[in-house]
């Protein structure tokens, strides 16, 4: 099947999507974001996603993590609300309601090789009624037979999902769905095929990022190799999750989020050099990325 050429969205269109708060906004109206991740081995990934979610505008960010990770999350940023996943039910995730939008991110810092992490990811896929972004270790669970059945059930129920694989995770998702395609050879085609196979919007990350809903594909190619450092994908998950939590549509949240992430990488490199940027710098550069996009639009 031949795919339509990838679109590019101009700055004016992207700037119009920025989620400026209304004068009478409160923290709930600005969107609740729950980040489910951060096992004992990877607490930092959940910290990065959650901090990025705050910088991208979400009004109330919660981290649901391993009990061993609680102290790390709280120490990293006291404004995050952290709770243990022991005794927690995925049904406790905030549901989007009128004037109280919400979204969830599952996967940053879930170990793809750990059974308990896989069960948690599958429980979130089954229960999350609000928009759900699936990243990191949760993508391994999604690629299983049970994960694919849950993705199909979510789509049938009208529940919306965004996937943010890197090349290795995309290959695993493609194998699970028995679709061909190679991220290196034809990323636009693979992003579209994964979107269709999983009933989701797919953000296929790489030096260029391709965002597809299966029918339309948008190219985001304004990033920098400064972003090639462990943990920047967790930052992207938090940014897109926050835009979903503020009520953006799936494709718009994914394209605007990938753009702000790329622009924040460039702004961080301007300050820290492309050698020295760390993911925390990308989080801190998100306001500059917003300013640059608003000025360009
Ligand atoms: N500070 C932290 O706590 C960090 C935790 N992280 C977490 O670590 C867990 C495992 O994620 P990883 O991505 O490290 O898993 P892996 O590094 O195990 O990647 C899975 C597979 O994909 C391949 N791969 C990785 N990046 C690729 C790319 N860009 N293109 C093609 N193939 C690629 C790898 O070779 C491997 O075979 C996730 O939950 C993630 O959120 C990472 O994001 C790094 C930072
Ligand atoms: N050379 C590059 N140029 C532009 N962006 C890049 C480059 N390398 C990586 N990135 C971006 O950095 C992020 C890396 O995400 P990922 O591989 O998931 O890292 P991690 O899992 O360690 O957080 C993605 O958003 C990707 O698009």
Average predicted confidence as pLDDT: 97
Shape annotation:
globular
Molecules bound to protein: ligand NAX, adenosine-5'-diphosphate
* Sequence stretches where pLDDT stays below 50 over 5 or more residues: none
CATH fold-level assignment: UDP-N-acetylmuramoyl-L-alanine:D-glutamate ligase
Continuous helix count: 12
Which sheet architecture does the biggest sheet show? 9 strands, mixed
What would you note in describing this structure?
It holds the Pfam family Carb_kinase. Keywords: ATP-binding, Lyase, NAD, NADP, Nucleotide-binding. Its EC number is 4.2.1.136. Homotetramer. InterPro entries: Carbohydrate_kinase_pred_CS, CARKD, Ribokinase-like. The chain has 297 residues and is of the alpha/beta class. It has a single domain (28-296), classed as UDP-N-acetylmuramoyl-L-alanine:D-glutamate ligase. Helix content is 46%, strand content 13%. It has helices spanning 11-15, 43-55, 70-76, 115-127, 137-142, 145-156, 167-176, 187-198, 232-245, 250-276, 279-284, 286-296; strands spanning 32-36, 60-65, 81-84, 102-106, 132-134, 161-163, 201-204, 209-212, 217-220. Strands 3-2-1-4-5-6-7-8-9 form a nine-stranded mixed β-sheet, sandwiched between helices. Strand 4 (102-106), helix 4 and strand 5 (132-134) form a beta-alpha-beta unit. Helix 2 (43-55) packs parallel to helix 3, helix 9 runs antiparallel to helix 10 (250-276) and helix 10 crosses helix 12 (286-296). The longest helix has 27 residues, at 250-276. The radius of gyration is 17 Å and the shape is globular. The N and C termini lie far apart (35 Å). Residues 42, 44-45, 107-110, 112, 136-137, 166-168, 230-231, 233-234 line the site of ligand NAX. Adenosine-5'-diphosphate (ADP) binds next to helix 9.
């Amino acid at each position: 099947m031949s795919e339509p050429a990838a679109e590019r969205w101009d700055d004016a269109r992207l700037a119009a999507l920025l989620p400026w708060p209304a004068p009478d906004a409160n923290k709930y109206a600005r969107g609740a974001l729950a980040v489910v991740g951060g096992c004992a081995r990877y607490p930092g990934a959940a910290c990065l996603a959650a901090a990025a979610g705050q910088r991208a505008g979400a009004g109330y960010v919660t981290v649901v993590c391993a009990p061993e990770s609680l102290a790390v999350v709280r120490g990293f940023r006291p404004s995050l609300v952290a709770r243990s996943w022991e005794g927690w039910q995925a049904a406790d995730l905030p549901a989007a309601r009128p004037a109280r939008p919400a979204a969830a991110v599952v996967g940053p810092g879930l170990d793809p090789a750990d059974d308990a992490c896989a069960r948690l990811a599958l429980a979130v896929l089954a229960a999350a009624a609000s928009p759900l972004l699936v990243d990191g270790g949760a993508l391994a669970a999604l690629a299983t037979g049970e994960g694919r059945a849950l993705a199909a059930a979510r789509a049938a129920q009208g529940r919306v999902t965004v996937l943010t694989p890197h090349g290795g995770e995309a290959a695993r998702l493609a194998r699970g769905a028995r679709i061909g395609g190679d991220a290196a050879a034809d990323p636009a085609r693979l992003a579209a095929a994964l979107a269709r196979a999983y009933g989701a919007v797919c953000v296929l990350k790489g030096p260029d990022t391709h965002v597809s809903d299966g029918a339309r594909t948008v190219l985001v190619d304004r990033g920098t190799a400064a972003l090639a450092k462990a943990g920047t994908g967790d930052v992207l998950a938090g940014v897109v999750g926050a835009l979903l939590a503020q009520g953006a549509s799936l494709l718009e949240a994914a394209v605007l989020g990938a753009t702000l992430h790329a622009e924040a990488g460039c702004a961080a490199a301007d300050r820290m050099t492309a050698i020295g940027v760390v993911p925390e710098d990308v989080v801190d550069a998100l306001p500059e990325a917003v300013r640059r996009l608003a000025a360009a639009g």
